[in-house]
Input
Amino acid sequence: MFSRWWSLPLMLLLSAAVAGALILVFAVVLIYPQLPDLDLIERYNPRIPLRIYSAEGMLIGEYGEERRALIKIDAVPKSMKQAILAAEDERFYQHGGIDYLGVLRAALSNFVSGGARQGASTITQQVVKNEFLAGIPRDGRYKLLQAHYAVMLEKKMSKEAILERYLNTVFFGNNAYGLAAAAEVYFGKKPSQLTLIEGAFLAGL
Output
């Protein structure tokens, strides 16, 4: 009986929060004067370092601001994908760019703790942040724009394509951008050679 009594107010609160967020996103998009073209995000052109190899094919040197090696989603071990999703966005395949349950959970957690200790950005929102909204001031409109374009991106790209983009852009520390570079920097391996423990370590980063 008690749980039923709480379910209706909770659903009404969630519905009101979602409706309010959508209205704010729509308003911000209308008044924001200079927004980048969403088609630009599909033209993936990351910074690839210059690599010099010996005649035997051994890597001699690597030069560039970002250490990165691109990888296709099919080459990522299933256990590695599961570890990343568990750490970053466990409802990735269920939401449409915004995890409303995650937003509500984070808001309640931060309210109880009295500070911003928990975030709710999805993998799609992180892709938008890293590649699409660079240079835009992080004022009160930023999060709304990020949410808006995350929803739009989900309509233009498949889940696997978004996850692949994320795994090629996320920063793992030590100047390693993307999973392939991280596997090489930390373990001297390709992603397909990572053990379960090594994959969990990288997911934790």
Remarks:
- The mean pLDDT is 76.
